[in-house]
Design brief:
By secondary structure, the chain is mainly α. The chain is 83% helix and 0% strand. The N terminus and C terminus are likely disordered.
Amino acid sequence: MMLYLYENYEEKMGEMSHFQLGVIGALFLSVASSVSIVICNKALMSNLGFPFATTLTSWHLMVTFCTLHAAQRLNLFVTKSIDFKTVMLFGILNGVSIGFLNLSLGFNSIGFYQMTKLAIIPFTVLLETLFLKKQFSAKIKFSLLLLLVGVGIASITDLQLNFVGTILSLLAIITTCVGQILTNTIQKKLNVSSTQLLYQSAPFQAAILFVSGPVVDQMLTKQNVFAYKYSPVVLAFIILSCLIAVSVNFSTFLVIGKTSPVTYQVLGHLKTCLVLGFGYTLLHDPFTGRNIIGILIAVFGMGLYSYFCTEENKKKQLSSDLPLASQVKDKDGTPLLTGKNMGNQNEENHDHKKLSKDAVI
């Protein structure tokens, strides 16, 4: 019995270690791919004059679906049936949230748009607390506050309010938060992988953006995506952007499924800091002492968040393993030479044989 308990404990520790490596890999893939696509898209839109962000996103999702379909045909992963209505509404919601974020950027100043992105974290915490009964400790909340203050200092330069832009920002916050919470919830409740969920939802996301993208882009840029003259260099950057987007979309679902929507948003702000840093070093964007101070505060907040989350996860793991450890301790601590033990030795041997028989069955 004691050997079985120890083996079970070691197996659980091995699974925990494997899970942590998977999370680290997912986080690294998300950061690397997201920073890469931001740099690629910035060159495409700022330097090459291709401003159609929403339409480009629809192409990203179509290429993602085609890539996953090819992978599925090659038996690289197995599809799992998900209720059609659930996956359709989920896909449309995610597509709509992307459209609202792009509209928010178009109708607001850069500063107000950054405020919109920052508001996603506290709103997600609020929704998960109210509807999913999830508890966030004071330490976690403090680290998130520090992170938001840092990113705000580093990235917010101006705040210009207008009614339409404010409404669009609120809609963007709501749809983004709900979409990311559902990404995590669906994977866990229905026991589907990030790849399976992305494969089934990507066509709906692509479809809603493929239809609405040209309209949204024309509203924002006063240009028609179909009248644009595509040079070989622009086409090459579009293809590169779509290929990187496969990794971005996959890692997004992977990170949210393995961690939480809040952790994904924290990771998103790490990407913002990295993009600011890369913009300064590679693209020679203007950089001030305020940017440096903000990034340092944000990184410190992220470090605290990571540390507090790790500590809380360890405590949860220890509390879940406590009954197991208690059983092992009790078994080890049973006196072997007491009169009562010697008197009942035959009875215990009989019980041990019975237990072994039941375990085999």
